[in-house]
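Why do we care about 3D structure at all? Because function follows from shape, and shape follows, mostly, from sequence. That is the central idea of this module. The next example makes it concrete: a single protein chain, its amino acid sequence, and then its structure expressed as tokens.
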Amino acid sequence: MKVFTPGGRAAVLAVLSAGAVLALAPIVWLVSTSFKERGDVFAVPPQLIPAAPTAANYAYVWNQADVQRYFVNSLIASGGTVLLNVSVAALLGFALARFAFRGRRLLFLLGISTMVVPFPAIMLPLFVATKELGLTDHLLGIILPTAAVNMWLSVYILREAFAGLPRELEEAARIDGCAPARMFWQVMLPLVKAPLATSAILVFTLTWSDFLWPLIIMRDHTGFTISVGLQYFMSTLTSNWHHIAAVAVIASLPVVVVFLLLQRYFFTDVLSGATKG
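And the structure:
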């Protein structure tokens, strides 16, 4: 059965192409600006391809010690958050999916309900708790709260993944003498690589792009992440938009790299969810 007529297919392709152009245009212009000289940024007519492209903008901003520090801070904070979040979520998701205990459904529903609570509603008590633990002006003050806030997003993904595994695997592992811990690490966990990658991509992106919480928890600028540092540079570099564009491109690269590295697992998870049932 034909879903689209030739005319309908052409219309759909036209709409999707227009949407792709609208989505990619700001990114393309940002990259283009990062390779321009200062005088070419606002040239008339606008130049999509710089007349004299230069990588000096990247060299200039990268040689600023603050940019390197902010970049490293973001890598540590995002990597630590992903490691803590996914590790705990995998254990909790496995327990909720494979073990029967009283209150399991209630615990899951309560945890999922926290996902609809807006962050500003818990920001003040979260800041007080972080301050009492002495974690202000420390990267752990970003890692622990961010991992906790996004915990149930990963738990939901991984619980569904573990629940979809056949019971025969678990029974075979028990016959072979596997304890629950060994069954988790050696049998179940390798089978949910796609959901693990999906959780890692989502949590890494959320942590890397987070602006509000690092701004609140860090008073010393040496602890800023790249998202906060970008705002700082926009206020100090003023009209040097070619330098600001270079910093923005540098700030975007880790998210792109992580997605490219894990996209195979990510799309596997998306497609399996789309075809399930």
